[in-house]
Amino acid sequence: MTDTASATIDPREAAHFGAMAAQWWDPEGSSAMLHKLNPVRLRYIRAAIDRQWPGQEQAFRPLAGRRALDVGCGAGLLAEPLARMGAMVTGLDAAPENIAAARAHADAQALDIDYRATPVEQMAEGGFDLVTSMEVIEHVADPGAFIAALSDRLAPDGLLILSTPNRTPLSRLAMITVGESVGGIPKGTHDWSKFITPDELTALLDAAELEVTDRSGLSFDPRKGFVLSANDAINYLLTARKRG
Questions:
Q1: pLDDT digits (tens, 9 = 90+) for 188-222
Q2: Pair 132, 70: CB distance under 8 Å
Q3: CATH code: domain of residue 219
Q4: What is the pTM of this model?
């Protein structure tokens, strides 16, 4: 790993998530929370796609002919749906174990996804129409450098979509005190001090010549499960694009 790569990848974080690779596709395993989050994240992403490239709202493959990059892809929970939406998908993850699990699962689903155990800073190519990074930035060593690298991979008219926990007392209670004890999140997954507020993330995006075009809270409804809402005290998603 080069010095550039080490600017964002935290080896301890990569090892933590790599140890969960074998259970990544088990909805009752160590990644159970991600399985519960994925449907609402996909609804948000689909809405952003339809706003950016109108006319395909009823299509099953609205990303046909477009390139998508999922950074911190794990074993492919998001990359596979993006491929089914027609995108030519590249998935990056810091843990080789996750990439191996992702490739095996995609092969079993007959999905052609370019998975790489490569830091985003080391990618030679750019011009991706869609760049996603879900629940990742709170685990990197240098969030500013990470956002700059994501921006560098984005096409001039492309979309960047991120999700991350907010740094509030409620997020500490929900995701660490409760989530990592009885809520199904593996202990040690989160460091609350590394959570990023929406204002902080917006400033990082601004420094990388990106502007936020949409933001939504992600909260929990006892009747419905995870839902998009105006309440971003626990978690939020946002969409950004290149300024100008």
A1: 676 888 899 999 999 999 999 999 999 999 988 88
A2: yes
A3: 3.40.50.150
A4: 0.89
